[in-house]
Amino acid sequence: MLNELNAKLTKGVLDCANFDTGFKISLMKVILFSLILIFNSLVSAKTVNVILDPGHGGQDRGAEYHGATEAIVNLQ
């Protein structure tokens, strides 16, 4: 969808003889690319760290691994 919009905007810039229209279309392309970059950065920022805790059986509730305590990690 974004690629189709980009192609239409590019065609509009090449076809238009009016500077004002070309400027507006170019501005729309800049905004579109900015939104794509923001969207991609938001998607990549949403990561989930899963910590597998072998052993203990949840008995050592004070154990800690990189700031995550056994009480928080224990899913039982």
Description:
There is one protein chain. Helix 1 packs antiparallel against helix 2. The protein folds into two domains: 44 residues; 30 residues, no CATH class. A hairpin with a 2-residue loop joins strand 1 and strand 2. The chain is rod-shaped. The chain has three helices and two strands; from the N terminus they run ααββα. It has a two-stranded antiparallel sheet. The chain is mostly helical. The mean pLDDT is 66.
Describe how the helices and strands are arranged.
Blueprint: H1 2-15, H2 19-45, E1 64-65, E2 68-69, H3 70-73
Antiparallel strand pairs: 1-2
How would a textbook summarize the main sheet?
Answer: 2 strands, antiparallel
Describe the global form.
Answer: rod-shaped
| Tally of DSSP β-strands | 2
Structural class: mainly alpha
How do the helices and strands follow one another from N- to C-terminus? HHEEH
Unreliable stretches: none
Average pLDDT across residues?
66
Give the strand line-up of the largest sheet: 1-2
Question: How many separate helices?
Answer: 3
Helix residue percentage: 55-70%
Using the CA coordinates, give the radius of gyration: 25 Å
Separation of the first and last Cα atoms: 44 Å
The number of domains: 2
Query: Which percent band covers the strand fraction?
Result: 5-15%
Offer a few descriptive terms:
76 residues, two-stranded antiparallel sheet, 3 helices, rod-shaped
Short description:
By secondary structure, the protein is mainly alpha-helical. It has three helices and two strands, in the order H-H-E-E-H.
